[in-house]
Amino acid sequence: MQHKAPKQKTRVILIHGLHQTPWIMRPLAKRLQAAGFDTHQYGYRSMRDGIKTNSARLNSWLETNHHLDHPIDLVGHSLGGLIIRDFVAQYPKWKIGRCVTLGTPHIGSICADYIWRLTPVVVGRSYVDALDGTVALLPKHVTLGVIAGNRPYGLGQLFLQYHNRKLRKSDKPPLNEQLVHDGTVYIEETKIESAADHIVMPVSHTGMLVNPEVAEQTRYFLEHGRFKR
């Protein structure tokens, strides 16, 4: 089914997550292109550089390749969503349309906490000021949509299953819905009060990047500022 393109062709910057490359965002980019969006897959060094450096490089790329007066939308997967948070806070000169994050741990990542304590080299410089939950606050003028997954498939599930067992044995065990995750990130970690909308979909942390329904919800939010119900 063909979708009507936005009235003003908007450039969408897609930002991958930890240990990934821009190519992993290609399936989503192609579906957004089919809906009339101009896309760019921003690549960065998630291990070697911290979030501030990667935000600065995105700003530099835009200064060279994008006009300040033209709006941009931003879509980020996992850590990429935290780069969006930092970028829009640090560089308010850009005209930000709408933003969508996919499986992003907005309040910090318990999975990353475990890895940081055991083998910090695995998360590199992306832990501090990002995955540790201390990323910049979302500016009030930014319209953010959050997509979370509830299919627990992925390497991170080993840590989260262990964490869930600990929580269930605690004096105040959490509700079952508070233990649901996508294999890497808890649904509860994706929630942020300043978001315009939040939706949970039957996908895993990485699987959401190739899921056509996730792409459709992303498109719909970019065009309408809310998810399709």
From TrEMBL:
Lineage: superkingdom: Bacteria
Keyword Hydrolase: yes
Gene3D superfamilies: alpha/beta hydrolase
Record InterPro entries: AB_hydrolase_1, AB_hydrolase_fold
Ranges of residues in domain AB hydrolase-1: 11-134
Gene Ontology terms, MF aspect: hydrolase activity
Record's keyword terms, sorted: Hydrolase
UniProt xrefs under Pfam families: Abhydrolase_1
Name this polypeptide is given: Alpha/beta fold hydrolase
Organism: Psychrobacter proteolyticus
